[in-house]
Design brief:
The protein has about 190 residues and is mostly beta strands. It contains four helices and 15 strands. It folds into two domains: about 110 residues, no CATH class; about 70 residues, Barwin-like endoglucanases (Beta Barrel). About 15% of the residues lie in helices and about 45% in strands. Strand 8 and strand 9 form a beta hairpin.
């Protein structure tokens, strides 16, 4: 069976142009320090602090800038901050909550929406989707074998685009449940 790279996505933030200007100064730019597996995506030097009703957390800004600001947390992170993170696909922010203040070196913003726990998903090219026999939007289960903590991740959304590279993304809570540190391999077992 074909294997899929499984990557762990730690808490982070995607910023809009307007929010970048408030947090880092008018016309500021992100400075890539590490390119990620998805083409054009990167971790930047820039970091912000999230302030919630129960605590604070530092997060890295991922680039490039987006149409709307979104914070991606694990459910444990959300509880520690005292906010509710809705499980959503990245970019699907309707009906999400806020409750966080984002603090940068030049200013701060209050979020009234956009706090999510990213729904686990697999990025695929159209050729990958054909090879695996799936379509954009399908929901599959992925088996990940680890030493003593093997799991099947059900409810995994398939996302297909020419601009993607084959990889599954899970958050730190999911990685901890499966004893994954860094990356692992998975295989689609049902859909």
């Amino acid at each position: 069976m074909e294997k899929i790279l499984v990557e762990v996505s730690a808490r982070h933030i995607h910023l809009s142009r307007a929010d970048m200007d408030v947090l880092f100064g008018e016309g500021s730019e992100l400075h890539p320090i590490k390119y990620l597996s998805q083409p054009g995506q990167y971790a930047s030097e820039e970091k912000v602090t999230l302030k919630g009703p129960k605590g604070t957390a530092g997060v890295r800004v991922l680039g490039p800038l987006r149409k709307e600001t979104q914070v991606e947390l694990s459910l444990t992170d959300a509880r520690s901050l005292g906010v509710k993170a809705m499980i959503r696909e990245s970019g699907v922010l309707d009906g999400t909550t806020g409750g966080l203040t984002v603090v940068g070196p030049k200013g701060e913003i209050a979020l009234d929406r956009g706090v999510i726990a990213a729904k686990r998903h697999i990025h695929m090219t159209p050729a990958d989707a054909e090879k695996f026999g799936v379509n954009n939007g399908d929901v599959v289960a992925v088996k990940v074998v680890t030493d003593g903590r093997s799991v099947v991740f059900a409810d995994t959304v398939v996302r297909v685009s020419d601009s993607y590279s084959l990889a599954m993304h899970i958050d730190t809570d999911e990685a901890n449940a499966a004893a994954i540190s860094g990356t692992a391999e998975g295989e689609i077992v049902a859909f």
